[in-house]
Specification:
alpha/beta, Ubiquitin-like (UB roll), Rossmann fold, Oxidized Rhodanese, domain 1, 3 domains, eight-stranded mixed sheet, five-stranded mixed sheet, 18 helices, binds zinc ion
Length: 481
Amino acid sequence: MAKVLIPTPLRPYVDKKESVEIAGATVGEILESLTRQYGELRRHLYSDEGKLRSFVNVYVNDEDIRYLNKEQTPVKDDDTISIVPSIAGGRPLATAAPPASLSNEEILRYSRHLIMPEVGMEGQLKLKNASVLLVGTGGLGAPLGLYLAAAGVGRIGLVDFDVVDMTNLQRQVIHGTKDVGRKKLDSARERMRDINPHVELVPHEVRLSSENALDILRDYDIVVDGTDNFPTRYLVNDACVLLGKPNVYGSIFRFEGQATVFAYPGGPCYRCLYPEPPPPGLVPSCAEGGVLGILPGLIGVIQATETVKLILGKGEPLVGRLLLYDALAMRFRELKLRRNPDCPVCGDHPTIRELIDYHEFCGIPQQEPPPSPGMSEWEIDPVEVKAKMDRGERFVLIDVREPHEYQICRIPGAKLIPLGELPRRVHELDSADEIVAHCRSGVRSAKAVDFLRQVGFRKVKNMKGGILAWSDKVDPSVPKY
Ligand code: ZN
C-alpha cells in the first residue's frame, strides 16, 4: 500500500483524513482507485474529459512528476504520494501547458526581467504559463490589471459587471474619461491589450455568486480579491479554500489599507481573521465613507507584487502576516496571523464544505425590498419641498450631512446639523415646527427622522433621495458627488 497525503483543501472530500492508504502499481492506478473510493474528490482532481487537472501537482516521495509521464509513474509499496495544490512551499506553479518559449519580441519586452537571476527565462516562462483571476476591475483591480498584464502573466481573467461612472475615475486608473458609460470589462481589456497583446484576457461578465464561483475560480492558479463588499469577500475566501487556490487579499478605506495572502497551504484564511462579518451598515463602504484615490493604487500594487512572487516561487510570501498601511501617518505595520484550527472552512474539522448564501451570512437581503409605490407619511419628494418654498410655507429644512459635504453643495436656507450631533442639538429644533430633513441620498436623513420621532417630534419628514434627487428634479446646478 502507498500512502497518499491529502492537502487541507481536499480533506473535506476524504472524510477529513490527512492521508489515505491505497494499493496500486502506478500513480494513475492509485489516483483512480482513490477517486473511486471518494467520489466527491474526482471533480477536483480530474477534468470532465477524465484528464488529471493541470493545476494538480503530484509528487512521489520528493520527486515532482509533473514533467514525467506522470500517471504511468511506478509506485512502490512504501512510497508516499503527495497531492499538492497549485502552489506549495515555494515550489513552482503547476502550469497548464508545458513550458513555452518566448518570441524575440517578448524577449525584448521582458528584458528587464530576464536579466535578473531571480526571474530570468525560467521565471518569465512561469509568468507566461500562469493564470490569475482578478475579482473586480475597480480601485484595486486597476493597478493589478495594468501591472500583471505588463509583467506578462499569460492568462488573466476579469470578473466585473459594472459600468464606468465619473466617480470611479478618481482612483480606477485603468479606465479613462472617454470610458464613462462603458462596461468596465471592455474598458479594462482594451487598456490591458494595449499594454501587452501577448496576454490572454478572459472576461467574466457576471456577479460572482455561490452558483458560479467554483466554476470560474477553478480554471485559475491564483485569485486576487479586489472586491468592495463583505458577501463577495467571504464567497471568494471560501471558494479559494475549497479549491486550494491562494487568495491575494487587499482592502481599502479612507486612508487605510490592508493586504495579505489567504488560503495558502498551511496559512490562515479570511475567516480565520474575521470569523464573522460586521453587522450590515456598521462599516461604511467607500461610497459612503470615501477613499483616498491613490490608496488602492498602493494596495493593488502590493497585491500584484505578491501575485508575481507566488508565480515565481521567490521571496517570502505575505502569508500569516497582515500588512496594515496608514497613508496619513505614512506607516506600515505587520500583524501575525495564524490559521485557526477551529475555522469553519479551513480548520481541522471544517463545517463549511460547499458555498453558502453569503448575503444571508452577512445579514444583507439579496433583493432590496421593492420601493413602496408612493411616499410614506414620513417622506416628502424634493419637488414638493421646492413647491412649499415657492408657496412661502413655513417649515424648517435641516441638512444632516457633514460640514465638508455642506461645502460641496447645499440647499439654500437649510440648517446644518450633522446626524451625529443631532441628539445633543435637538433643543435647537421646535417640535411645533414642520421639519424636513435631508442628506446626500436620503439614508442618513431617514435615521434623523426616526430619531426625531422617537423623541416626540410628529411633524417631521425625510426628503426622499436627498440632495442627489434635488439636483435631478429641482436644481441641476447643484453638483452631485
Ligand atoms: Zn480559516
